[in-house]
Amino acid sequence: MLRRLTSHITAISRIFKDSFLQQQEKAFIAHMRTHTPVWEMDPNAEILCQMPWDYGFLVKFCHVAPWLAAKHRAEIRLTTLWISAEIDGGSMRSNLIQRLVHNSWAERKWQRLYESFGGAPGPTNRRKNLSLAAKRQATNQFHALQSKDDVLALNIHNLPAGDLIYDTYLRFRPAPTVDIRDPFLLALISSAWEVAENYNEYLDTHKVRALLTSYTSYIHHGLPARICLARNIPVLSMGRNDPLLKQVTVDFPSHARAHFHYPQLFASLPDHQSKREAGRAVLESRFQGQIDQATSYMRTSAFAGGSVSKPFDDGDPRPRALVLLHCFFDSPHIYRDMLFPDFYEWLEFTLTTAARSNARFYVKPHPNAMPGNAAIVADFQRRHPHVTFLDAKTSNRAVIAQGVEAIFTVYGTCAHEFPWFGIPAACAGDNPHIGYAFAQTAKSREEYAAWILNPGALRKPDSAEDRHQIEEFAYMHGLYAGGGRTEMPDPFHLTTCPVDPNTPEFLAWQIENRPDPADAAVRTLLDLAHDDSLLHRL
Q1: What's this model's pTM, rounded to 2 decimal places?
Q2: Dihedrals φ, ψ of 440, to 5°?
């Protein structure tokens, strides 16, 4: 009891310490005030810059936002991130924790950090009073829900918003699937209307030239981006682990790159052989347990050495099939479509169908899943005794060495990694590999079920052409930086910085190692964003 109390007191004291400017943050503000370039402004023009509470984004945006503002002769207006449901829509304990984290001192601290490079307050995701009409719309939408597909079909002012609401529920509830009668879902629908009212009112009265955002997932990021796109306002996104700016488009309003155009774009580039060789080098490094650009979200490589050398039961004569899990909470709708509303429903369908398969099914949990996933996996294990669950730390190298007939995923990187070794990959939704033949994507649940019942029916990707395609994909997905460039730029030293980017010390390191000249580094990124937008015109 005393230990738990001490832990709570320590956590609360850390929250309040992080709510006030530390010495490195004060130095960063002073530095930016004297080193941010001055540009000519039209007092009526604005660019909107999102304000994530994250040092990595702060460093990126302090370079990109002034350049973008100068390009448009505009002021920088800062947009807040948090939505009302995130702070007020959960349990009493959750609300208390969120209010401690999102206190007014912390908000003011981050406001001052972003104001240091010329920003001023702009639109917010929260408002004090939602209009009566919007409240009625949210309530009516909630009570009309009959299925999870109905959630995905929700619109806000005729803009698709169901996928954003659904993914926000999974992440912030957190839960593996949606409960359509949960009051928290109503709170999220109301928050979506709240964001829409705020942004539409703001855009009606301000001349906004562009939106700079981190991601386009969840209500927080995605809805402002879609509202701007509907008004023909350019949207540029820049993910946490991606050094590139991406020009977001109406037809694919995702921060992910337009993977479905990879083959056509590669065909337009010169010197295919050297690019395939570069892609092969990335793959060979990954298979040795290294992290690369395409897997930078992973804390540990799925190919790192594990403690289990033989994960499968050699005594079972049936062919083996492996299901590789995703994190249940992590934005399943980042791509264009899925056969199932979420990863939970996908896994339930897969394992239930596997009971009638001619193969022995194994499941490997995601090695870098968020807290809470283990309990969900344990429940599946209890309810599906006909399936064997592996340790999440089991190396994919051990799996490949012992042999497997096929692997099943929704859109994981395993869909190009296992085919490299001649193992078929079956996908249950749009995925980065969909433009290539080495991975097979089911067009219906019936086709997907047929593959589960007989994994041997999947085509083996064991030809020289399959290998060429996988090398090409590895180049396009992990190395291509636009304009025919082979190497990803890293002007902010996010991958080479020796200091933890989650600490204030990162800001002190950046002051000493700021790109010189900064304009040239940022210009390159904006040029690459333009090049990447060509993907949508092919």
Answers
A1: 0.91
A2: -115, 125
